[in-house]
Amino acid sequence: MTDATELRTRTREFLAEHPPASTPREEFLRARFDAGLAWVHYPQGLGGLGVPRALQAVVDAELEAAGAPDNDPRRIGIGLGMAAPTILAFGTDEQKQRLLRPLWTGDEVWCQLFSEPGAGSDLAALATRAIPASDGSGDWIVNGQKVWTSNAHNARWAILIARTDPDLPKHRGISYFLCDMTDPGVEVRPLRQITGEAEFNEVFLTDVRIPDAMRLGGIGDGWKVAQTTLMNERVAIGGSRIPREGGMIASTAALWRERPDLRTHDLHQRLLELWVEAEVARLTGERLRQQLVAGQPGPEGSGMKLGFARLNQRISGLEVELLGEEGLLYDDWTLRRPEIVDFTGREAGYRYLRSKGNSIEGGTSEVLLNIVAERVLGLPSEPRTDKDVAWKDLAR
Amino acid sequence: MSATPDLLYSDTEDELRSALRGLLTDRCDPAAVIARTETGEPHDPALWKALAADMGLAGLLIPEDLGGQGATHREVAVVLEELGRAIAPVPYLTSAVIATETLLAGDTTKGGVAAGLLAELAAGRRVAVLALPWTTAPGGAPYAGVEQRDGQLHGRVTGVADALAADVLLVPADGLLYAVETAAEGVAVTAQTALDLTRPTAVVELTGAPARPLTGDPAATRLALDKGLSAGAGLLASEQLGLADWCLTETVRHTRERNQFNRPVGSFQALKHRMAELWLEVVNSRAAARNAADVLATGGDERALAASLAQSYCAPVAVRVAEEALQLHGGIGMTWEHPVHLYLKRAKSDSLALGSAGRHRELIADLVDLPAP
After folding, report:
1. Which residues are in the Acyl-CoA dehydrogenase/oxidase C-terminal domain (chain B) (predicted)?
2. Residue B1 — pLDDT band, cuts 50, 70, 90?
């Protein structure tokens, strides 16, 4: 079945059998997964029908029109966007059968244990160790510290990369695991940010036991497996059509219109400059979207996050200035634990501070510039001093 | 907001680009362009004939029943990208876009002055330019440099781009628009020493020049001029995009090949980050320029906004990329021999042309309700 009409019929039949109004949410989502309508490009039996990904839109439109509940994708983004495609690509049949259904329905939340205090941009230098248990069980014993982990406090599972061979060069001695977050050796502590809230956690791993059946990919193949995860992280942006004044510029433009008392010539010039840049960035996103729809993905996507980070920072900075005396205030410093992060939410001061993270999270702007320069423009890389050295001999 | 613009290039547009790039590679190499700037004839009439008449590109905007190709601003934008890349010394933007669009906005009745002129422009037989200073933005105050007495024009207009290549001047005077033959008695076109060597400006002096009216009243004149200048500003962005794209491509090539400190200079992060930043701006320019081309082509109610958006973004980007290209070429970039100076001179002059970025931002402020204090 590859046809949109057939898929529409199938979705309508499903909705008739499971009326959203009278079916409990959890039950509805599980049934949707079992009917292959969760992610249609996944294989049959794993929530999909093995049809092109573009056809998901047909299903989603029918479900939305029927008022069906969704799986709250923003809350479980790491599972959907990063864990699931990696498990699909490298997992065993047992792993796929056990993990993908509760992942998709949101019954089991996932988090990502990649970054460490000593391994940020240079992720492959990570120091968390996984060593075979001495009891001959084949289990792995994991020790180390991870950081910047969203949702660790809600998570049932984590995707984890750890060093299994320190004598090899850094990229080659890493393995990829699926870590049970209920293990007694997992300690999760909130990591408070400059905004006052704690979106993220530090995760301390002390003698955490992971069965070898929860290894994803071969021993020492962890870096390669992690590339799949990270590639999917960067693909996730840029899917939907954004209206004019749809992003960070919205609140600043609205404030300008509502408050003539705040207007100065200097702020006007700067606002117009940023309005133009925001509108052009929107068009660039729209052009990228059109390229994807036409099946001609260009390299433009590599730059979207760079521009987005810079623009968010500049616009929110201007908004604080535009507020005048009110710009001296902050809405709330209480340590909160938001489940969903909205960069354009709350007040101007929050937006200003939160946007500082946009050029660090998910690849720093400096690393992304290297990626654009080397992979898009074809400029040569810096000479590498770390490629052929055993991890244990690297400077740290 | 009107329908979402198509920001991609069609297959036909890609074919047009590749045909034109082939011609320009053969007929417009940088060394020859530099050599020509040192002669008394800065424009290249043979190249103009090849692309205007032989390829039929001068008539793209002109409907078929007026002798043109009946194409749209989208194809014109692709032509301008390529002409910008090659820094081609031909009066395409001035004649085939601005003058043409101005004439099309007026009375094009068969047998009329404008219709006759458009047919000649479409065939590439003649060149027309708008006799206004090159810095004139759309939507400005009426130009007051020329007056009409007894059907003849008197006055002086400075900074007229491509006037030296023109056979016909479109001259606003006392609320009407007139066609004036440059070869007529009472018309003098004198070259200025211009910053832009490949699109030089000239002074037009009219001392009792014979003139044929093209518009019937001041409102029609205003409309025609705004339409021509707005299309010019919106499509200049595509020329700026092509120019910036050439500068970045050449800079990447140079820094990959140039070795210092025993490695290609392009491997230093201090340099490659700068080129990556330029690439981001070129990518954005492409979206803004394509948007302007498509909105102008479909004739939506956001023509003025799309044109001003494109010009306010693409003009400073072209300058920045050209300036960075010069710096990243090192000493060779500062020589007369290397063509990067042609691009810098064009980019800087273009940032004044048809309204500065700041002027276009002011126009945008009115259009999107972000009023000045």
Report:
1. 227-366
2. very low
Q: What is the ipTM, given to two decimal places?
A: 0.96
Task: Name residue B301's amino acid.
Answer: D
Mean of all residue pLDDT scores within chain A: 93
Whether B273 and A366 lie within 8 Å, measured CB to CB? yes
Mutate one of A277, A279, A283 to test the B interface: name it (highest B CB count within 10 A): A283
Substitution target from B284, B295, B317, B321 for chain A, most A beta carbons within 10 A: B284
The nearest alpha carbon in chain A to B273 belongs to A369
- pLDDT tens for residues A50-68? 998 889 989 999 999 999 9
Tens digits of residue pLDDT in A138-184:
999 999 999 999 999 999 999 999 999 999 999 999 999 999 999 99
B42-93 residue pLDDT tens: 999 999 999 999 999 999 999 999 999 999 999 999 999 999 999 999 999 9
Query: Which domain, by its residues, includes B276?
Result: 220-367
| End residue of a domain, out of B126, B148, B182 | B126
Assess if residue B118 is contained within a domain: yes
Contact of A257 with A249, CB cutoff 8 Å: no
B230 and B278 assigned to the same domain: yes
Tell me the pLDDT of chain B averaged across its residues.
Answer: 96
- CB contacts, 8 Å: A376 with chain B: 276, 279
Does one domain contain both B210 and B293? no
Grade residue A240 by pLDDT with cuts at 50, 70 and 90: low
- What is the topology classification, in CATH, of domain A110-229? Butyryl-CoA Dehydrogenase, subunit A; domain 2 (2.40.110)
Q: Which of chain B's residues have a Cβ under 8 Å away from the Cβ of A364?
A: none
Q: Kindly determine whether residue A372 and residue B280, on different chains, have CB atoms separated by under 8 Å.
A: yes
Q: Is the pLDDT of residue A236 over 50?
A: no
**Is residue B63 included in any domain, yes or no?**
yes
How many Å apart are CA A204 and CA A206, to the nearest integer?
6
Q: For residues B232 and B312, state if they share a domain.
A: yes
| Cα–Cα distances in angstroms (integers) from residue B207 to residues B183, B188, B204, B230, B318, in the given order | 13, 8, 10, 30, 38
Residue B249 at interface with chain A, using a CB cutoff of 8 Å: no
B267 CB neighbours in chain A (<8 A) are 379-383
Alpha carbons A263 and A90: distance in angstroms, whole number: 57
Which backbone phi and psi does A209 adopt, to 5 degrees?
-100, 125
Distance of residue A367 Cα from the nearest chain B Cα, in angstroms: 9
Domain count, chain B: 3
- Our CA-based measurement puts residue A71 at a distance from the nearest CA of chain B, in whole angstroms, of 30
- List the catalytic residue out of A62, A197, A199, A233: A233
Provide the 10 A C-beta neighbour count for residue B351: 20
Q: What is the per-residue pLDDT across B205-214, written as a single tens digit (0 to 9) for each?
A: 999 999 999 9
B139 and B105, same domain (yes or no): no
Residues B298 and B333 in one domain: yes
Query: Could you tell me if residue B275 is inside a domain?
Result: yes
Question: Catalytic residue at A233?
Answer: yes
Average pLDDT over residues A341-358: 93
User: Residue A358: is its pLDDT beyond 90?
Assistant: yes
The full DSSP string for A175-230 is EEEEEETTSTTEEEEEE--TTS---EEEEEEEEEEE-GGGEESSTT-HHHHHHHHH
Please, which residues have CB within 8 angstroms of residue B209's CB and are 6 or more apart in sequence? B152, B153, B154, B171, B180, B184, B185, B186, B187
- Tokens read off for B260: 């210092």
pLDDT score for A238 = 42
CA B53 to chain centre: 19
CB contacts of A280 in chain B (<8 Å) are 284-285, 287-288, 309, 313
B207 and B325 both lie in a single domain: no
pTM, 2 dp? 0.93
| Confidence at residue A237, expressed as pLDDT on a 0 to 100 scale | 42
B293: closest CA of chain A, how far (Å): 13
